[in-house]
């Protein structure tokens, strides 16, 4: 049915046109089948759509969402996110929204965090940290409110007092899963809960798959934290890739089946990310680059090449004369002696009468943070 919806307006979609009357039957041949108003659609399928449309009561759904404190947004409304139009014929007819924020504004700077329901502690910690860091930098975290990675992502954004959006595969007045009723209530108070199904609708397996395309289209990019080879999270990532969105994956242990799907995704078109800087570099504005990755800087790294050569020529367990050090380092005795005094002042070497050796005192190393210089 999605292929025929663009031919109808939002209000007319509940009234499917009746098929034209078939031509008069000939005496002997069987009566001809009436042509449907939608090419490629059988009479039987259209009749099923018509019966379902006859049972709809949109005015009751609107009353229910208003009583619940929500609203309905359809294409053309000010709050409608334009990026959902990229879905073409599969674009939602409308979105039911519960929450005070403006969905279109939030969607402009949003990223999806999705993953396995039965996640590991590593996955839950990673999702929480990423969501919290993204929220602190002004990004809206979008997920599906499911157990596991989804719930960890929402909690991370809420903990940072940031913005988060839960996309449900049921009515926004029907918290699912039941164990996340409190979490969904908190998201409603601090963020948004949205869905394309009317109030009172319950989730089914096929509706979760349909829900994932909305998550992919609504955001600038999708990050998969943990996923098996068969996972709804990979469906979201592939939908994002088809829509031209950034697709990212967080690597996990090679021995973990919950990371196997992510690793397979990374072998194709996804980009490996490990922290918020990696994510923002892809989906952020021009110039928001991740810092250069390098190991910690130790005091020996700050020495000039001449001192380094002399230091490498020194033994650790016994002292030797400066002339022997000069021979090992390939430098002149005078230059070696000058370097030794410089290294002594920096705490690298010790002098024993006329001999020298590496110091046994520990040299304090500066604290080095990941990505620092």
Question: Can you put this structure into words, describing what you see?
Answer:
With about 375 residues, the chain is an alpha/beta fold. The chain contains 13 helices and twelve strands. The strands form two sheets. It has a nine-stranded mixed sheet with strand order 1-2-6-5-4-3-7-8-9, sandwiched between helices. A three-stranded antiparallel sheet has the order 10-12-11. The longest helix is centred in the middle third of the chain and has 16 residues, at about 120-135. The two termini are about 55 Å apart.
Q: How would you summarize what this structure contains?
A:
With 373 residues, the protein is α/β, with parallel strands linked by helices. It has helices at residues 43-54, 58-67, 103-107, 121-136, 149-159, 181-190, 205-218, 232-242, 260-266, 276-283, 305-312, 322-329, 333-345; strands spanning 70-73, 95-98, 110-114, 140-143, 164-167, 192-195, 221-224, 246-249, 271-272, 320-321, 349-352, 355-358.
- Strands of the widest sheet, in order across it, are 1-2-6-5-4-3-7-8-9
The succession of helices and strands, N to C, reads HHEEHEHEHEHEHEHEHEHHEHHEE
Shape: elongated
Whole-number average pLDDT? 86
| Uncertain stretches | 13-22, 28-34, 366-373
As a percent range, the share of helical residues equals: 25-40%
Portion of residues in beta strands equals 5-15%
The largest pleated sheet is described as: 9 strands, mixed
* Rg for CA atoms: 32 Å
Distance between the termini: 57 Å
How many beta-strand runs? 12
Total of DSSP H or I helical runs spanning 4+ residues: 13
Which structural class fits the helix and strand makeup?
A: alpha/beta
């Amino acid at each position: 049915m999605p292929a025929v919806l663009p031919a109808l307006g939002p209000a007319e979609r509940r009234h499917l046109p009746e098929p034209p009357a078939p031509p008069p039957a000939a005496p002997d041949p069987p009566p001809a089948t009436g042509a449907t108003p939608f090419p490629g659609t059988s009479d039987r399928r259209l009749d099923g759509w018509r019966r379902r449309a006859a049972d709809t009561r949109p005015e009751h759904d609107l009353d229910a969402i208003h009583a619940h404190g929500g609203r309905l947004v359809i294409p053309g409304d000010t709050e409608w996110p334009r990026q959902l139009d990229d879905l073409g014929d599969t674009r939602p007819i409308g979105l039911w929204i519960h929450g005070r924020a403006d969905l279109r504004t939030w969607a402009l700077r949003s990223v999806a965090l999705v993953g396995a329901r039965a996640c590991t502690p590593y996955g839950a910690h990673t999702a929480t940290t990423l969501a919290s860091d993204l929220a602190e930098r002004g990004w809206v975290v979008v997920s599906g409110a499911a157990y596991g990675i989804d719930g960890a992502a929402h909690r991370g954004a809420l903990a940072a007092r940031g913005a988060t959006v839960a996309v449900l595969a049921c009515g926004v007045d029907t918290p699912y899963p039941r164990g996340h009723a409190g979490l969904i209530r908190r998201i409603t108070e601090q963020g948004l809960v949205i869905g394309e199904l009317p109030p009172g609708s319950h989730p089914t397996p096929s509706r979760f798959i349909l829900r994932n395309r909305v998550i992919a289209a609504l955001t600038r990019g999708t990050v998969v934290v943990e996923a098996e080879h068969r996972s709804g999270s990979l469906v979201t990532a592939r939908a994002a890739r088809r829509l031209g969105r950034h697709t990212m994956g967080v690597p996990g242990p090679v021995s973990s089946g919950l990371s196997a799907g992510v690793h397979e995704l990374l072998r194709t078109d996804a980009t490996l990310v490990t922290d918020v800087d990696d994510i923002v570099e892809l989906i952020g504005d021009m110039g928001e680059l991740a810092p250069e990755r390098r190991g910690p800087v130790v005091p020996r790294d700050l020495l000039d090449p001449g001192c380094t050569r002399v230091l490498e020529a020194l033994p650790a367990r016994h002292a030797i004369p400066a002339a022997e050090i000069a021979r090992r380092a390939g430098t002149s005795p005078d230059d070696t002696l000058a370097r030794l005094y410089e290294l002594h002042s920096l705490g690298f070497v010790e002098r024993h009468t006329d001999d020298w050796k590496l110091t046994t005192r520990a040299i304090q190393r500066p604290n080095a943070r990941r990505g620092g210089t």
